[in-house]
Amino acid sequence: MKKFHVAIIGGGVIGSSIAWNLSKYKLDVVVFEMGSDIASGASKANSGVIHSGINSPPSSLKARFCVEGNKMFQMLANKLDFSLKWVGKYVIAKNEEEIKELEHLKKVGRKNKVPNLEIIEGKVLKKREPNISCFAGLWVPTAGIILPYEFTIALAENAAINDVKFFLETKVIGLKKQKNSFLIKTNKGNSSAELVINAAGINCKKIVNMLEEPNFNIFPCRGEYLVLDKNYCNLVNSMIYPVPQKDLGVLGVHLTPTVEGNILIGPSAEFIDDPYDKRTTKEMMDILFYEAKEILPNLPEKAVINAYSGIRCKLASSKEGGWADYRIEESKKTPGFINLLGIESPGLTAAPAIANEVTKMISKSVELKTKTDFKIRSRKKRFSQMNPKEQSDLIKKDKRWGRIICRCEHATEAEVINAFSNPLKAQTLSAAKYRCRAGMGRCQGGFCTQHIVRILEKQFQIDIKKIKLRSTNSHLFYGRTRETKK
Amino acid sequence: MINHKVDVTVIGAGPAGLTAAVSASEYGAKNILVIDRNSWIGGILPQCIHDGFGVEETGRSMTGPEYVDMYIDMAKKKNIDILTETMVLKFNRNLNIIAVNKDGLHNISTKSIVLAMGCREKTRWNALIPGDRPSGIYTAGVAQSFINLYNIMPGRNVIILGSGDVGLIMARRLKFEGVNVLGVVEILPYASGLPRNVVQCLDDYDIPLFLNHTITYIKGKERLESVTIAQIDEKMNIVLGSEKEIKCDTLLLSLGLIPENELSKDVGITVDNITGGPIVNQNLETSLSGVFACGNCLQVYDTVDSLSIDAKHAGKNAAKYIKKKGNSKLKVVPGKGIRYIIPQVITAPGKIRFTLRVEKPKLTTSCIHFIINSRQIFKKKLPYINPANMIEINVDVTQDLLKSNKNLEVVLSE
Fold it and tell me: Of A365, B149, B208, B251, which residue is most buried, by most CB within 10 angstroms?
C-alpha cells in the first residue's frame, strides 16, 4: 500500500492549486480525481473571470481570498505560462434606479480595497463599448480573464513533473482514520496519508460523510452558458455585467470575452436536486440569449457554437438567499482532515490564496522542506500565435508542426501529440481539446476528430474501443465496421 | 518561406476544385496550383461510396471515388500541381497566399484564385439541441468518414436527425452494416434531401421517417442513452404530450451544410447572408477582383453534376481573367417565393446561367419570372417545385438591359 504525506481529494482548481503549492516541498503528495482529466467539474465550466472583489461582503472569506488571489495572478501567469488578460469589467445600470446598486458595489469594493473603481456615464461607456447602451456603468479595471481549464492544467502538470502523483478515474469510496494516518479506499486500490484534504467540490459532503456526520448541506445550482464564434470577438472589449441578482446570491447573466476571442453568455442560476445534472435546456438557452440581447442588441442569431453548464457548490439554499461564505477548516472531530466547503464563485480567483492558507494549515503538522530541484513548466507557444519565422524554424526541426489537424483553431499534429503526452496521462478527446484547442472551434470537431482518432490509434496504440470523449465510460466507437483478416 | 509564382491557384481539391483546375487548363492557364488540407485528393467524395454521381454529366452512374478519379486522371494528364496536406492560412488583396505543410511555410504569388473550400456540417449547437453532452453524437459526414474511410463503427442503435441527403444515405449505409436504424427525424413537413434518396434509402429499407418532428432532449451522462422526439405544429411549436423517448446509443446529425468562407471573410470578400457563399457576378467572380468561387463554398449543391458546370465556368474565367472593370451592372434580387439566386450581380451581357432555390415545395405548376423595371424579360414554367431541387435557368441578358442599371427581380407565381 502506498503511503503519502498528503492526499488531496479532487483535481479541480482548488485541489490542483494546493498540489502545485505542495510540489515545491519535499513531500509525498497524491491527488485523486474521479474524472478522466483534471478540471472536469466546475473548474472547467465557469466564466474564467479573475474577479476584483467588489461582490463579496467585507470581512468575508470570499472577499479576502478573492482580493488576495487577484493580486497573485500576474505572477502565476508568468510562472506557469497561461494566458491572462486584464480586460476589466463594467457593471451596467439600465436605469437611474440601478445606479444605487453601482454605488453600493463601489462602496463594498472600496472596503475590500479594490483599486481604481469609477462610475462613468452611459455616453462615455458607449465610446469604449460601442455596442452597449446603458444609463451608467461601474468600471472595474482589476478584473481579468483566463481559461480556467488552462490554468488548472498548468498547475496540475507542473505539480506532476515535480512528483505529485495524480490518479485519474480514481474515485475515493471510503476513508478511515487510523492511529496516525488515514486509510483511503478507492476503486483502484488503497493508500494511506497523514493528512487528507477534501477539495471534492460538489462532492465535498460525501467525503465528509465517510469520516463524520456533516453539519452542512450542499445546494447544487446549475449555470448554463452559450459560447459564441470567434468571428464576433469585436462585439465587446471588456466584461459586461448587469447589477447582481440579489435573491440567488449570483452575479447574473453577463458577457465575458475569453482570451481566445470567443464570447461567453451566462451563467444562468437554477437550483437543482441532482448535482451531476449538467444538462442544457431550451428554456435557459432562450433566456440567456434574450438577456444577452438586452445588453447587446446587435447579438447575431447564428453566433452560438456551443453550450454547456456547470454546477455551483452552494452552502445556502435559494430560500436562504443562496449566499454563504466559504468554509476552510480542519475538522475538530478528525484532526488531519482539512475541508474546503462551498467553494463557488469567486473560487477560481480565490484558489491560489486558498492554497496558501491550506499550506499554512498543513505546515502545523508536517514539516515543509523546500525542494532544490523544482522544475519550471515550459510551454511552447501555440503554432497559430507564432510569427512566420518561428513557424518555419519549428517545421524544419519537426515536420509535424507543419500539419494542421484542427482547421478552425489551426492546431498542428505536433501540438496534438504533445497534448496527449501530458504528464497526467489524460488521453480523452477533451484532454486534447483543453490542451491544444483541437476541436474547440466552430466546426466542433467535424474536421479534426478523424485525424485525432488516428493519432491515438497509431501513435499511442490505443484500441479504438477504448477511445473516449470526456469521461470514464464515454467511449466513441464499437469496433470495426468489418473485421479484416491479418 | 518557400516561394511560388503561379497563374491560377485553386483552394480545395474536391470535385469543384479539380474541375475548375482542369477547366482553367483547358482555357490556356499554364501554371496551375491546387491546394488541399487533406492527405488525399477528392475532398468528401472518397467517403461517398454510394453511386449516383455523374449521371447527368456523363450518362453513367458512378460512386464518389470513381467520379473523382475521372477528374484526378484529367488533372494528371494536364500536369496540374496538387499540394496535399497543405492548409491555406490566409491570402491578401494582392493575391498573395500563405499556406503551410510539412515542408514549411509557402508564399504563393498568383494572378487569380478559385475558391473551392467546400462546406462544413451544421453541429448540434447550430440547432441548439438541449440536454446532456454524452459521446455518441456525430454529424452524418463524420460518421460516414469513420465507417467508409477508417473501418470504424460509431454506433449500434442509431437515430438520425435531419433528412438532408447525407443523413438519408447514412441511414441506408448503416442498415447495410447490420446497424439498427431507428428512424430519421425531420422538423419540416417534407424531407429536405432529394426525393429519390427518400425512396432509395428509407422506403426501400422500411426505415421510418418522422416528419414534423424534432429532438427535444438528449440523455446520457457518458454515452448517449436516449433521445426524446416530439411533434411540431405549423407554428414550429412542440405539440404538448407528443414527446416520446427513444433508446439509442448514437445520434447522427444531418442538419445541413455551411459553406466554408473563413478565408473569404478574412480578406474582406462580401458574403451573401442566405447562401453563405461569396456574392458573385456572371463570371462567378467575387467582390475581390481576380477571385472566383465555385462548389459548395459558393452554395450548397444537390448534385456534383450541377456543381461541376459552375466549377468549369469559374475555372474558365479564372484563366481568362484580365483586370478590367465594367461600369454597368444589374443587381439580381430574389423576390416572392424565391429563397436565393446566383449570380447576385451581372456586369457583362450574354447568356447567363442562373441557379436558384424556391422557399417551399408545391406539387402544382408554377412559373418563375425575371423582371426588370416591371417588364418581364423571361419566364419559365415548372410542373412542380421543391427547395431540395435546385433550379437551373439560362437567360439572355442584353447590353441594353445591363445599361438600365436597375434590379433584376426574380419572382414565383402560380
Answer: B251
Chain A positions in Cβ-Cβ contact with residue B37 (cut-off 8 Å)? 404, 407
Q: Same domain for A389 and A429? A: yes
User: What number of H helices and E strands is found in chain B?
Assistant: 9, 28
Domains of chain B (ranges, CATH numbers): 1-120+258-324 (3.50.50.60), 123-255 (3.50.50.60), 326-414 (2.60.40)
Residue A470 contacts B where some CB pair is shorter than 8 Å: yes
Choosing from A379, A400, A423, the residue where a domain stops is A379
* Among candidate residues B103, B99, B143, B142, the one with its CA nearest the CA of residue B117: B99
Digit-coded pLDDT (tens) for A278-326 = 999 999 999 999 999 999 999 998 899 999 999 999 999 999 989 999 9
- Pairing between strand A239-242 and A89-93? parallel
Kindly report the average pLDDT of chain A as a whole number.
Answer: 95
Where is the domain boundary, A362, A379, A396? A379
Spatial CB neighbours of A74, under 8 Å, sequence gap ≥ 6:
A84
How many domains does chain A fold into?
A: 3
Positions of chain B with pLDDT under 50: 323, 325
Q: Which chain A residues in 279-298 lie under 8 Å from chain B, judged by CB atoms?
A: 279-282, 285
Would you state the pLDDT for residue B128?
92
Q: Hey, is the C-beta of B348 within 8 angstroms of any chain A C-beta?
A: no
- The x, y and z cell numbers of residue A286, run together, are 432562450
pLDDT digits (tens, 9 = 90+) for B348-407: 889 999 999 999 999 999 999 999 988 999 999 999 999 999 999 999 998 888 888 789
| Neighbouring residues of A394: CB distance < 8 A, sequence distance ≥ 6 | A383, A386, A401, A414
CATH code for the domain in which residue A35 is found = 3.50.50.60
Residue A356 falls inside a structural domain? yes
- What ipTM did this prediction achieve? 0.94
pLDDT reported for residue B326: 54
